[in-house]
Design brief:
213 residues, elongated, 46% helix, mainly alpha, 9 helices
Length: 213
């Protein structure tokens, strides 16, 4: 009897260890930032036409199934490790989370609305350069919410809908693209009144922004 119980216990441990449900996944009924990231990627690829609302409903499930089918994955409608990886969500962008990705996209949209795609990526890169710089907070949220760091948090721009290009720009910035040349600051010379920012050594100009050290 004891031997049988021991064998059952070992089998249970084995199943829990190798089960595909032991890792994070999203499925019908799930909610949150990861679902929003899935919807963003599916929308960019033409699979999803609904709202980016972070709710894993029937439209999201249908889009996931079609994406899985087209990419040789098991079309079960569950966004597990392989599906997330194929979408470029899990373990992409330097290990940043989906919530950080969405936050960066919102910042880019607010700060670089109307700028070229290169200019949008550059703004995202500045945030990431600050994360790596010893003079700034070491997280994306810490950098973005640092007091006085970005005017968009105080003029209403941060709360406006995020542009589709900002999501792509955030992804490229997270994956190492940096048109700013390593800049940790940028400003618009047409509106900047702070004398200190004008004293920073300029690296490059992209659109309406000067990027500097």
């Amino acid at each position: 009897m004891k031997k049988a119980l021991c064998i059952i216990s070992l089998l249970l441990i084995f199943v829990l260890c190798v089960s595909p449900f032991s890792s994070a996944f999203s499925k019908f009924g799930s909610r949150g930032n990861e679902v929003s990231a899935i919807q963003v990627q599916l929308s960019a690829l033409g699979y999803y036409k609904g709202n980016i609302d972070g709710i894993y409903g029937s439209a999201t499930e249908k889009a996931v199934k079609q994406f899985q089918y087209d990419n040789g994955l098991v079309a079960d409608g569950i966004a597990g490790e392989k599906t997330l990886s194929a979408l470029g969500i899990k373990d992409s962008g330097g290990g940043y989370s989906s919530s950080e990705y969405l936050l960066l996209a919102r910042l880019i949209s607010a700060e670089a609305r109307g700028e070229s795609y290169e200019g949008q990526v550059a703004v995202g890169a500045v945030v990431l350069n600050r994360v790596e710089h010893p003079s700034f907070p070491d997280t994306i949220s810490g950098v973005i919410y640092q007091k006085g760091a970005f005017s968009c948090l105080y003029d209403g721009q941060f709360d406006k809908p995020v542009s589709s290009s900002a999501y792509s720009a955030a992804r490229d910035a997270l994956n190492g693209m940096d048109p700013s040349g390593g800049a940790i600051y940028y400003f618009n010379p047409a509106t900047a009144t702070n004398k200190w920012i004008w004293s920073r050594p300029a690296i490059t100009t992209i659109g309406n922004h000067i990027f500097c050290e």
